[in-house]
Design goal:
Number of strands: 5
Shape: globular
Strand order of the largest sheet: 2-1-3-5-4
Radius of gyration: 24 Å
Number of domains: 2
Largest sheet: 5 strands, mixed
Number of helices: 22
Strand content: 5-15%
Order of helices and strands: HHHHHHHHHHHHHHHHHHHEHEHEHEE
Length: 486
């Protein structure tokens, strides 16, 4: 047993180190081209980090109407100490996501190894760590990497055998609420993990977590979030307005069309293509796991049931909603990695009947097929995009005086290091919709293609006299820093 633990710990550490080696060298690099059809990589890093940035630099998380910290308190709570210790900037904003991605890979390795064996742990950890979606988004300051780390922690606390059922139950409940506190997209995986916990209780599996303490941990973790929301209900309405509309339809024809488009016609934004090796491994693992159901341990059955429910329901959710960029599929990837682990016991059974050389070659080929596409497309130094954003942030911070108010859809990203308020526009009614020149003292704008804000239309002479201070290419856009007189 100690030797097995040692090998498992070594494998988990090696996989975590692999993630860091693939992602840390790209911490300042621009988003990968062709990662998604969405504009999110060029705008949302600033959106997701701005409330933590505001608190660290200004002492106020939301000097304007942007209040995402009410919906994503876990992410904000993680970013605040990072900014406070390492300074505000895009590299610091991305560091928690890189660490979270590595921790999720380590957690999946340890979980699958504990339930299914060391080979399954390696398959699950490597499958997750080298998935092109994970490598593409795992180094960016998005919510999904933090979400996956919390979900993996919850699943591991629930399914791994424990001698401390109360403590692990409380930790599992806390991790589930923390996941929802990163992004509401976690709700479906949370249900799947709860089903796994309930299955283990129903089967009276030895070493299972306490459901009562799991509920207690969830409740205690939710209390501060509930208190924050209850004291900021007007701001919560504005925060909710920044969420993409679900636009769920009850029309059978349209619903069928959405599902077909997502599953078969490319509406998944390339998610299936980037996760194809892991999807294939998960399919093999699902078949193998179900085929060995009778001989499986109750704990393995609980893990299999939870992972299937997670993968199927989370994918079904994306198939029926209107807005579904490929980064949303990241919340399915941990379940696919777990299912891939179920392929290993069956493959090992087949391998022992093969000549040693053929079995070794087959294992090498399987590892290359699982890990190669993601590493080649999103992990090699030769495929790394340039690192322009850190210098852009430095240039903008050197121009804009401290105490200024900066407006623009890209202000949260470009002006992240400026010691002044950031005002973010949004299409919702009443959202940062005042005459911001007069009410907020906006004199600096960060605009795409020099687009005139609506509130400046009443001041044509000031707009005509604007000074374009600097411009930089940013993805498909031409972003300019503009100074207004007065």
């Amino acid at each position: 047993m100690p030797a097995l633990l040692s090998r498992t710990a070594f494998s988990a550490a090696a996989i975590g180190l692999l993630v860091l080696l693939l992602l840390l060298p790209r911490i300042g690099a621009d988003p990968d081209s062709g990662l998604t059809r969405s504009n999110a990589p060029w705008s949302d890093e600033g959106y997701d980090a701005v409330n933590a940035r505001n608190l660290v630099l200004l002492g106020n998380p939301s000097p304007d109407d942007w209040n995402r910290h009410l919906l994503s308190p876990t992410a904000t709570a993680v970013q605040i100490p990072a900014f406070a210790v390492a300074g505000v900037g895009i590299e610091t904003a991305r560091l928690p996501d890189i660490l979270a991605t590595a921790l999720a890979a380590v957690g999946l390795t340890l979980l699958a190894a504990a339930v299914l064996g060391g080979g399954a742990g390696v398959a699950a950890g490597l499958g997750f760590a080298t998935c092109a979606l994970v490598l593409g988004y795992g180094r960016l300051a998005f919510l999904e990497p933090l979400l996956n780390a919390a979900l993996v922690a919850a699943l591991a606390a629930v399914v791994r055998p424990t001698r401390r059922p109360r403590l692990m139950g409380a930790l599992a409940g806390a991790a589930l609420v923390a996941a929802v506190g990163v992004k509401l997209l976690a709700l479906v995986p949370v249900v799947a993990i709860a089903v796994a916990a309930g299955w283990m209780a129903w089967q009276r599996v030895a070493g299972r977590v306490s459901l009562r303490w799991m509920a207690a941990g969830a409740g205690l973790t939710a209390l501060p979030w509930a208190a924050l929301v209850m004291t900021h209900l007007p701001e919560l309405r504005l925060a909710a307005a920044t969420l993409p509309p679900l636009a769920i339809t009850l029309d059978p024809g349209e619903l069928r069309q959405r599902v077909l488009n997502y599953l078969l016609r490319g509406a998944n934004d390339g998610a299936f293509e980037m996760a194809l090796p892991l999807l294939a491994a998960a399919a093999v693992g699902t078949v193998a796991g179900l085929a060995r159901w009778r001989s499986a341990t109750p704990r393995a059955r609980a893990l299999l049931v939870g992972a299937i429910i997670w993968a199927v329901l989370a994918t079904a959710e994306l198939a029926v909603v209107a807005y579904r960029p490929n980064r949303y599929f990241l919340a399915v990837v941990p379940a696919l990695a777990v299912l891939a682990g179920f392929a290993m016991p069956a493959l090992q059974t087949v391998a022992v009947r093969m000549p040693r050389r053929i079995a070794t070659m087959s294992a090498v080929i399987a590892i290359v097929l699982l890990t190669g596409p993601g590493i080649v497309s999103r992990g090699l130094p030769t495929t790394a995009p340039p690192s322009t954003l850190p210098q852009i942030q430095t240039d903008v911070a050197s121009v804009i005086p401290g105490g200024s108010t900066v407006y623009g859809a890209y202000a949260a990203t470009f002006a992240m290091r400026v010691r002044g308020a950031i005002v973010t526009p949004w299409g919702a009614d009443g959202f940062n919709a005042d005459d911001l020149y007069a009410t907020a003292g906006v004199r600096w704008l960060i605009l795409a293609n020099d687009d005139q804000p609506v509130w400046m239309q009443a001041r044509p002479e000031i707009w005509a006299a604007r000074q374009v201070v600097l411009c930089r290419p940013w993805g498909p856009h031409h972003i300019c820093l503009v100074h207004l007189g007065g």
